[in-house]
Amino acid sequence: MNRKMLIAGNWKMHKTPDETEEFITAFVARYQERPGTDVLIIPPFTSLDRAGRLLVGTEITLGAQDLYYEEEGAYTGEIAPHMLRACGCTYALVGHSERRALFNEDDAVVNRKLRATINAGLTALLCVGETLTEHRAGKVEKRIIAELTRDLAGVTHDDMAHVVIAYEPIWAIGTGETATPEEAQATIKLIRGWVATAYNDQTAAAVQILYGGSVKPGNAAALLGQPDIDGALVGGASLDPESFIQIADASLDR
Fold first, then answer.
1. pTM
2. Can 168 be counted among the known catalytic residues?
């Protein structure tokens, strides 16, 4: 199956609304539509409304870095899925390692957020990945399969049409380290195999699986050239319009 590529930029806690507008203005001016590639920008909550308005009429999609699993109520500081849709979001990150490690989100919480994302008509971008200790101990498969099993509990075959999976080795996020293209390919092939077993071959062939972890213009082509890697979840390199465009361009070589 010829899956589309997805190049997603997770800005984390960077950029004010004015800085977001500056980025989008510069990016849109340079961006050319790529039929086989989708581009996704994931700013902080405070920039979503402005970003959504600026992206109207473009081919660039918008996502949120997190969400809460309730529709409304007394949850001070939280953001409901329908609020994200109202800002123009079509995606939401779920289970990023920083949410798991810094904010103590376990797989049960990730699962509730993922199902709430799908129920709201958004696409969930689910992050999974192992620590450096697990990587060195050869426990990558054990960690990844455990996360997938718990995070996707209760998610149906039809629901999987609204799930994108990102493999982000925790030891490579923001460290400058990155998995080799061969390592990334092997783990993403493992994920696709698990999807085939848990669901079916058709679902496994259709699901987009991204690589994230210090993706840069210099290594993007080698990573995106792997047969099972369907794009990139980019951190620091997505904060500069030019470097982000270069990564999107690298997807054209596959």
1. 0.96
2. yes
